[in-house]
């Protein structure tokens, strides 16, 4: 009999496939001595080491050949690292001279190599991570445990994990992963953001996901938030043949009566910028620059940053690109600005707060943004993450002005800034509401915690109140305010946000067409009415249901 598991729907679409689970981290091998009572013990260990290294290298090369896009590049680099003789030679020496087991020898040799690479600065320091990845794969081969990272079983599959780390997602092949199901994670976790960006159906915080067995067939409905176990043939067939209605955005966001709502894209790199252009985004409402810093042990140089930023700016000549300065800390830790021993990282030194101890990092980034802006013809706006006080807004605007960046804004992600919006926007020239963090802080619910997924939604009337307060304060100063959190990609919530006073919405490019379609069917007055209806509800579920009911005539024909 079929059983349905439920969770928080984060990326729409239906898919059927077999379950493949994420492997557990490879355990560190014990420091055990090799039995070298006769010489053949060391020879045998060395030959096992060689065989394991070759097997890993061949498998990675085969996976790279099958994969597409970034996943193929990452796998090819790791395969080349596995073929590098430096690691193999040192591991062999440790077996022979220190009588280490092959798995311990490769563990120690890789750690020593990574420690040599780390201080050398990019791009060599970047290779330390690849060395550790190769280490884990060879140790897994030698000890018979599953290799790390997103599996590549050679056929399409439903990926089941506790949650995905940003590093895992680099090897996630969107052609192979038909759906993602996690037991943890919230609607604004990295898994959710990535799945929406790639258009992969996904559900997070699924109760019972840990019990899903390797190889069982499931049907995932990313819109309804259900995972059907033991489905009938008809269920599987229906999911396989379900095609999403494909719409196009014409590049000009507006309501039915012509009230302008800029529809922008969230991007993190030049590839995403090109996808945003292809989806006719009017510009970029959130350029997450920390993706150029993440995974690095040292700060990228100004020149490297200029190159990275120009890659995005060049795709949007003559159009607006809102560059967000570094948002390190909490869910995006960086070794050179974040402490690793904070008791509550989400409430710690993150976002703009890192600039207090490291003003030079912000200064160099603003210099790089200014240089990139001067070299390209995009209309560059700059904003700071996690602004909480008027004083922070004032000093950020001053820091931007020192680099000739006159369009300096504040992200509103902390309830304090929403409530003091009138004062914050005395200085900041525009606002962008980060509803992912604003929801986390309004509801005191960790955005990564699946158990709190019901609280972690921007449909919470308390969050909508904060959006309204932000808009009122900003408008009293004549400043525009956008939303760039995941709420902007919710086509049902979009008219509510517009009714609350939001002037632009920035989202994953894939959501643009649906959001534009809904907005073009409702007048501005109706948006205000929908906002009033949502604010009157006692809780998030009631707000969502009430607005869906009110909008049924628009949503049904659009299949939303
Ligand atoms: C947000 O918090 O809503 C936001 C857009 O920033 P991030 O998700 O990168 O923290
Ligand atoms: Mg944020």
Total domain units: 3
Task: Tell me, rounded to a whole number, the average pLDDT.
Answer: 91
What would you say the CATH architecture of the largest domain is? Answer: Alpha-Beta Barrel
**Morphology call:** globular
Cofactors, ions, other ligands: phosphoenolpyruvate, magnesium ion
Binding site for Mg(2+): 413, 437
Domain Phosphotransferase system enzyme I N-terminal: 6-124
Family: Belongs to the PEP-utilizing enzyme family.
Cofactor: Mg(2+)
Features:
16 strands; binds phosphoenolpyruvate; globular; binds magnesium ion; Glucose Oxidase, domain 1; Enzyme I, Chain A, domain 2; 8-stranded mixed beta sheet; 8-stranded parallel barrel; 22 helices; 560 residues; 14% strand; 44% helix; alpha/beta; 3 domains; TIM Barrel
